[in-house]
Specification:
Layout: H1 2-12, H2 16-30, H3 32-45, H4 51-63, H5 67-97
Helix pairs in contact: 1-2, 2-3, 3-4, 4-5
Length: 98
């Protein structure tokens, strides 16, 4: 049911986060290893990784008990938190300047 609902959402509003969550729905149905196989190629195609996408990757690696990879992913995600905040502040500043 979760996968079917995400499929409908993808038809209405497709986005990288929606697609990743759709794959996550399959992960919950078929297990974390299936979610990993489904997601790995998708992650490699992304030009930029948002904090939400990075967090989902961390959690999946943690659930797979890939401790070293999960730790590295969490470290990368921490760097994105700062970058995401900086981008948000810069975007808001540009709006004020225009």
């Amino acid at each position: 049911m979760i996968v079917a609902l995400y499929d409908q959402l993808m038809r209405i509003e497709s986005s990288p986060v929606t697609e990743l969550n759709s794959r996550g729905g399959g992960r919950d149905v078929d297990g974390p290893e299936a979610g990993w196989r489904s997601s790995i190629a998708w992650w490699r195609r992304q030009r930029s990784i948002s904090i939400r996408i990075s967090h989902a990757r961390c959690e999946l690696l943690r659930r797979l008990d890939r401790r070293a990879e999960a730790a590295a992913a969490y470290r990368s995600a921490l760097a994105l938190v700062t970058l995401a905040a900086e981008r948000t502040l810069q975007r808001r500043l540009r709006r004020l300047d225009s």
